[in-house]
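User:
Hi there, any thoughts?
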Amino acid sequence: MPLASTAPQKAWTIEDSEELYRIQGWGEPYFSINAAGHVTVSPKGDRGGSLDLFELVESLKQRNLDLPLLIRFSDILEDRIERLNACFARAIARYNYPGSYRGVFPVKCNQQRHLIEDLVRFGRPHQFGLEAGSKPELMIALATLNTPDALLICNGYKDREYIETAILARRMGRPCIIVLEQVEEVGLAIEISRKLGIKPLLGVRAKLNTRGVGRWGTSTGDRAKFGLTIPEIIHAVEELQAADMLDSLQLLHFHIGSQISAIGVIKDAIREASQIYVELAALGANMQYLDVGGGLGVDYDGSKTNFHASKNYNMQNYANDIVAEVKETCEERNLPVPTLVSESGRAIASHQSVLVFDVLGTNDAPSGDPGAIEESEHLIVRNLYETYLAITEENYQEAYHDATQFKEEAISLFGFGYLSLRERARAERLYWACCEKILKICRQQEYVPDDLEDLEKIMASIYYINLSVFQSAPDSWAIDQLFPILPIHRLDEEPNCRGTLSDLTCDSDGKIDQFIDLRDVKSVLELHPLRSGEPYYLGMFLGGAYQEIMGNLHNLFGDTNTVHICLTPKGYQIEHVVKGDRINEVLGYVQYDPEDLLESIRRQTEQALQEKQITLQEAQLLMQNYERSLSSYTYLTS
């Protein structure tokens, strides 16, 4: 396993930090490092204008916005929409595609009101629409999407009310396309359409044979959760034809999974879907749209590979392959090409937010010179000391095994009463000194033996962060999703500490111990030592899709403070501030009445006063703290 050398060879530069944290790989064109060693944000990409993220956070703190703080950059959201549409426009021009592109944003990626409203506003010049995957999301989309002719794609499980609402929306001029994903929905759509006297716009979701890759690879195939098999699609066509509604079937939809890392999988899926599309047209369906679903990946680690946290293609490659394949298939059958639709939520929403949080403290492995020992000390202690003195580049692997064995013997002897507590402490101190010395040698090696791979993690510090992983990075915990994490300042200094991150929750899973790396995944993050009286800020990037809505209230840590920033010629302006959950709010989520709780504490303090267990001054202080805490942020504040 390769390990980075920490030998002092030259002064640390911001270029070293760029390479270490791979910010140019995953952050281009929005994130970089300036001469002060601070992360900068260029919300408009390569069109100019940037903000110093550290200075922005300090300014927001002066506005009483405590960390952790989610910062959304509206301009990045706009830029992502424009880039996606520009890529399809270039592909359409390049291949002389006689159709058009109409994107939609899947609301499930991030349902927050201000973001959806921004997305509709920024998408209006491109007739960018929305995709609803549930009845609540349909309610959002119907009320928010006011762009003329923008598509509203209706996916997910549907009951009578869902379908009825979507069909009735046609009376308001809304092109709501109901995508049939279950066999039962076909008959229900026909029945409701006849009852209302309104012909619906319908689509079918196909279960492709093409297999996806990565964590969502099972989104395809006959046993996938959503969609119709080919026999079921034929059955749907026959039902619609018998009801004289085959002309309502206008869209084919498929989805081969989120975060597709390999372009070859996308090509295979488009090829199969294009054939299904032209066959449906040949059967008499009034085919107009081909919805390629989601899957457009995000390069979380900057490696540009088919690793699950990356992708081996760019947005333009993606658009080119879709346009070229669909055109070729339609030309072979002499059929009009469809309007192309994609549901690229992750690629649109991931970059626009940055989660900034502070480090509260560290727990470091014992380090430093263990000092000399006396000849009278226990044999096991003397053996460990001799091992420590004898460690060299030639024998460090053998020395590690010896030190580990001696430590285990010391613990066993202590368990049987043959070693005192002080002697055990001495033995463990020497063991950690051996590990520290061996690790320094390992870091000078290009490769180290497999049995020493975990030494870096064993010796790593634990950095306690003001954050709930379950609330703000649930995919990191649930599916080992990788997000770029790095300090947002001090990047002109060498980060000579190694650490893992531990959150505020009382849960051993509340940690982050996997980080992006060029070659694979690393178990520790390079960090700086804390300075007394100075804050140390870390940022988690590319988390704007799914994380906010999937977060949970573990230990009742609620939503974080959120601020929307827009770039201006004079700097920036704050468009919206959304205060994070207060303690009384999260208590309400679990059916507690804060007033009842306060009254309960008041009665208890009165009882304690009568029994002279507490003074009046102490009782007043307790009540003041309790009442103040109820209206405070759920996270720790300075």
User: Anything to note?
Assistant: Residues 1-7 have pLDDT under 50 and may be disordered. Residues 421-442 form the longest helix (22 residues). The two ends are 40 Å apart (CA to CA). The CA atoms of residues 560 and 625 lie 22 Å apart.
